[in-house]
# Entry
Amino acid sequence: MNSHATVMNGQQTPAVGQPYTRNNAACHDVSFRVRDLNLWYGKNQALSGLNIDLFQKNVTALIGPSGCGKSTFLRCLNRMNDLIPSVRLEGLVEMDGRDVNASKMDEVALRRRVGMVFQKPNPFPKSIYENIAYAPRMHDLVSRKAEQDELVEKALRDAGLWNEVKDKLQEPGTSLSGGQQQRLCIARAIAVQPDVILMDEPTSALDPISTATIEDLMDKLKDQFTIITVTHNMQQAARVADYTAFFHLGEIIEYNDTKVMFSTPAQKKTEDYISGRYG
Amino acid sequence: MSHTFDEISQQLKRRHRKSSRLKWITMGSLGLAGLFLVLFFADMLTKGLPAFQQAYVQTEISYNEEAETDGRQAFDEELLPIISRTVVRVIPMELRNNPDMIGTSEEQWVLANSEVDQYLKGHRNSLSAEEQAAIDERVEAGQVDMRFNTTFFTNGDSKIAENAGILAAVVGTVMTMIVTLAIAFPIGVMTAVYLEEFAPDNRFTQIIEININNLAAIPSILFGLLGLAIFINFFGVPRSSPLAGGMTLALMTLPVIIISTRTALRSVPDSIRHAAFGVGCSRWQVVRDHVLPLAMPGIMTGSIIGLAQAMGETAPLIIVGMVAFIPDVGASFTNAATVMPAQIFTWSGEPEQAFVEKTAGGILVLLTILISLNAFAVVLRKKFERRW
# Structure
């Protein structure tokens, strides 16, 4: 089924992959352009015929019931699916007009520009300082120690963690609380100065207060980064996301401006999911 | 239909009896295993500890000119039956090294011969009743005494029992183990890293995996034959050398290291790998900077245990000729050498009574080293085990 063909009352049909409400005016630049993306785990098709444009310097939330393919889709954007041997992929995923799955595209270069934050906080078993400094050093972003110190501080400040850890930078990253660890992981991701940060249910392992902190952080970070987040929590999507895509059984049912989607969903399925009738 | 408590307990009684019986059986087997261990250690200690004591005779050594060719001339004729035959060569050697000593004399404790030693330790010996009485007299006079046996730790093998020591075998073992570790550790770890982190999961790698596991169960003597055929006969590695022995034992240790390294690598959580890939690490960087450091304690423990196993191995070394009479401490990796278990094996075949305690003494030294190695492995694991 192709949701984009559906025209809702009074709304104009969007271009392929674009949100319903978007009037072709260039309000945002496209970061990722995805066309006819299909993905199989062995024989099971997990994604079918995805078309979506993801916009720069915005928060886009991917929502949907478990097993709908939203995390799988997220991992297509930085080719983390390469690590799973049984995955087969067809279709186009473009970043800045370059096919990320092309043989010429180095997945290491891609991941340098597309950072990732995982569901469970996974700091390296090293000091807080090393957690941040490791990747920039590896990518030759810093040459001198002073530069490195500066970058560590900036990343921790951007992640809103600096004041809490500045006196214990040499302590293990895992000594922090869950919420702090997750912000450390965000700091680690932004330390390599990526364009995009993918977040795979970043708050699902956290308590409500830490969750709120991370949500505030996402709101701040979208000035600098494109943020694409997967979430189970619809309220969270409503709170933080500029755009929301609703996934169901491996398809994108609806993709829209968050406010519009949550007030007047175009699809019955979306409405049922948002109102908590399943999921 | 419901049951009363009485009916249920009736049936339960039988089940409880069964489980308590099983508990006693298992405790019994543990006790039996412990008993065997205690017996083994007790036997080794009672047989082996005397080897660290040796009878010495106090006497005047007169370094006269005749002693330059025959060391016996330096001693009182009466003493000759009870002192060690080694003086025949030792005294002239000393004199050659220090010609100034000729004409002087000196009070010294000299090694007694093994018959005297065995008599004083209360073991079977070939001394006649008069000889025994004479020795008793000297003991009373303080001229014959039991002292700590330094010879055992400073000499190589000897056909003269009181002169035989384990040093050549210890040095041989160390050199062999260096070769084994230098070959098996890098190859084993790299193989495991490839299989665990790089290799695709297909039929081919599965076959390799099964074969590596089987390799660990191959009788060690076959590795000896392999070492003989390939290293010695084909590549021309000197026979009996630590190089040949070490390479052969490396073959044997490889599967142990590969298997333990793979286990250690597998125990590193995938979240760490994902984190590393997520910040743009290449596969090798993920392994080198994140996975290997976390797996290192496990890898080292496995390697040390593999090494300890190789250290106690005799059969393959018999085949490559390391069970030889080696009186001198090995000078290089290509000289003929022997190892501790092979030395023990050699001594166990000697007919003289004095070698029985040497055998047990050698076992004690070997056991001490093995237990220390294993303890070191445990300490290492505890020290580097990261809980964060």
